[in-house]
């Protein structure tokens, strides 16, 4: 039996969730970072993401059978409830991280409080509306009994509007603060890129909203809705993880640059530039050997036996052999 494309996407999303949460946990552990509420919210979000993907897998696999499986309808009932938690928790984790970074900016702190209130309020209202949409409740998955349901499509589509609004707010909060910081454009770009990972989640949220609006016109939109929903919550969790993975990312970038530089300089006979400076009071001159041209790159290790001094800059200091004989 060939499974739907959505089933393979759910498996891929599970793998991505596991990778990013594991990397975040390893980074936090090795850095011995102080405890934050995000350290609880991220694992909770991870568990709800796995549950949501598992529910979609159950629905996709059971849809391949000719007979209707009762568990499929029950899974469909729990999807919006689990989605409310999977959608809200990673955003709360991001806002908690913002609180620790931008606590000194008053307007940002107030905005974070407002967005938090909207997120929690929307999640609670969404869960209550979902549970009360059909009367009796069992009519949601058992249509053999007498009952009625409200406009489910309208409920799901309208609940996406607060999600989009909060997504935009979360993306915009750090931008003006980072742009005012005294740092190079390259560093600003790197920091902004880290914070703007959530834009992918915003795009998925907008796509999900569009699917609900046009669900009557789109054939077999169920799979697309499953994919957009899982991608949305996965992107939120990735964003919450990446904000704590900056040390790991910087280390990987520096190692990559070091490898590229070592490969490009292999076999090169070009002499490195040096600068001579006379030490005050000693009358002795020292040679500063430049190991790279751009600020912030890794310093090449001095050769073994070289009496150099390792400096936390882009230069290495050592005395020349002629000066040692003086």
Automatic annotation (TrEMBL):
Compositionally biased intervals (Polar residues): 267-277
Superkingdom in the source lineage: Eukaryota
Transmembrane residue ranges: 6-26, 38-57, 77-95, 107-129, 161-179, 191-211
InterPro entries reported for this sequence: Rhodopsin_dom_fungi, SAT4-like
Rhodopsin domain: residues covered: 23-250
Family per record: Belongs to the SAT4 family.
Protein name (record): Rhodopsin domain-containing protein
Organism encoding this protein: Massariosphaeria phaeospora
């Amino acid at each position: 039996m060939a499974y739907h494309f959505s089933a393979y996407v759910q498996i891929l999303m599970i793998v991505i969730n596991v990778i990013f949460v594991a990397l975040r946990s390893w980074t936090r552990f090795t850095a011995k970072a102080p405890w934050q509420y995000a350290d609880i919210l991220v694992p909770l979000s991870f568990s709800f993401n796995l549950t949501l993907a598992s529910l979609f897998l159950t629905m996709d696999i059971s849809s391949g059978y000719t007979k209707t499986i009762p568990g499929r309808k029950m899974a469909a009932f729990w999807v919006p409830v689990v989605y409310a938690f999977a959608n809200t928790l990673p955003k709360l984790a991001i806002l908690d991280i913002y609180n620790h970074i931008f606590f000194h900016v008053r307007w940002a702190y107030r905005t974070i409080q407002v967005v938090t209130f909207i997120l929690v309020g929307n999640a609670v209202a969404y869960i209550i509306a979902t549970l009360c949409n059909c009367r009796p409740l069992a009519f949601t998955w058992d249509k053999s009994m007498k009952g009625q349901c409200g406009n489910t499509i309208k409920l799901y589509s309208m609940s996406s509007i607060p999600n989009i609004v909060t997504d935009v707010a979360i993306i915009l909060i750090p931008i003006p603060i980072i742009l005012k910081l005294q740092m190079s454009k390259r560093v600003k770009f790197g920091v902004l890129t880290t914070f703007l990972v959530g834009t992918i989640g915003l795009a998925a949220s907008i796509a999900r909203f569009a699917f609900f609006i046009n669900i009557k016109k789109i054939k077999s939109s169920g799979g697309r809705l499953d994919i957009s929903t899982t991608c949305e919550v996965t992107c939120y969790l990735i964003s919450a993880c990446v904000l704590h993975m900056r040390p790991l990312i910087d280390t990987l970038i520096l190692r990559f640059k070091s490898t590229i530089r070592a490969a490009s300089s292999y076999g090169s006979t070009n002499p490195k530039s040096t600068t001579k400076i006379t030490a005050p009071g000693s009358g002795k001159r020292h040679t500063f050997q430049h190991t790279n041209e751009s600020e912030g790159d890794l310093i090449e290790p001095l050769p073994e036996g070289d009496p150099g001094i390792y400096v936390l800059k882009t230069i290495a200091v050592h005395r020349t052999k002629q000066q040692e004989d003086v």
